Amino acid sequence: LDLKGIYKWVNAGNNRTFLLKDINLTINEGEFVSIMGPSGSGKSTLLNIIGMLDDFNEGEYYFLHESVHKLKEKQRSDLYKRYIGFVFQAYHLIDELTVYENIETPLIYQGVKSAERKALVADILDRFQIVGKKDLFPTQLSGGQQQLVGIARALIGKPKLLLADEPTGNLNSAQGEVIMQLFNELNKEGVTIIQVTHSEKNAAYGSRIINLLDGMVQK
Ligand code: ADP
Ligand code: ADP
C-alpha cells in the first residue's frame, strides 16, 4: 500500500486541527510494521485510514491496484471486507452472540455458504485452542481469550492485511506474549501486519517501526 501526501483535519469554528500532516508511506506485502508515538500523535487515525474505516481530506491512497481516494464508500467497504482484518484494543465483540457466532459473522457478510462457514470456524477454533469456549458469551471470557476471539474474527475471511490497534493493550504480559507470537506466525504465513503499539517489546516482533509525532512521520 502507498500513502501519498495524506492530510486529515477537523474544523472547529475558524480553527483547523490537523490530525495527520503530509503522510508518505509505502508498506509492502509481507511486512510486519509497528506504528509508535505518544498519545494523541495520530496513530489510531492513521491505522483507521489504512483500514478504510476513516476518510481523509487530502492525498492519495493506493491499495493493491485500487486508488482508494477515488472510491465510493460502498467500494471501499467491499475492499475492506475482501482484504482487511481489523483487531481492536477493546475487542469490540458482540455481547449477545456466542464465541462461535462472533467469529462466523464476517463470513455471513461475505455470503459464504453455511457448510463452508462451519468448516472454517471449526478450523480456527481448533488453531486458537478455543473449541471449548465456542458456546460461551464474550463476558464469560478473560481479556486474553476475548482478544483471541477478536483476532479469530479478523482472520476468518483470510485477509491479506491484518491491522491491530493496541492488540495487547488490555492484556497481561503472558497473554500479550501469546498474541504477539501468533502475529509472528501469521506474518511468516504471509499475512501483512500493521500494529499500533506503545510497547517496545511488541514492536520488536515486527521488522519496521514508524514513529509518529504531532500527526507527522518522524524521519
Ligand atoms: P493516538 O492514536 O496516537 O493516540 P489519535 O489518532 O487517536 O492519536 O488522535 C490524534 C489527535 O486527534 C488526538 O489529539 C485526538 O484527540 C484528536 N482527534 C481524533 N479524532 C478526532 C475527531 N474526530 N475530532 C477532533 N479531534 C480528533
Ligand atoms: P483477564 O486478566 O484476562 O481479565 P480474568 O482474571 O478475568 O482474566 O479471567 C481468568 C479466568 O476466569 C478465565 O479463564 C476466564 O474464562 C474466567 N472468567 C473471567 N470472567 C468470567 C466471568 N464473568 N464468568 C465466567 N468466567 C470468567
UniProtKB/TrEMBL annotation:
Entry's Gene Ontology molecular function annotations: ATP binding
Protein name as annotated: ABC transporter ATP-binding protein
InterPro entries, per the entry: AAA+_ATPase (IPR003593), ABC_transporter-like_ATP-bd (IPR003439), ABC_transporter-like_CS (IPR017871), ABC_transpr_LolD-like (IPR015854), MacB-like_ATP-bd (IPR017911), P-loop_NTPase (IPR027417)
SMART domains reported for this sequence: AAA
ATP-binding in keyword set: yes
Entry keywords, A to Z: ATP-binding, Nucleotide-binding, Transport
Location of the ABC transporter domain: 1-219
Stretch forming the signal peptide: none
PROSITE patterns found in the cross-reference section: ABC_TRANSPORTER_1, ABC_TRANSPORTER_2
Gene3D superfamilies tied to this protein: P-loop containing nucleotide triphosphate hydrolases
Organism: Terrimonas ginsenosidimutans
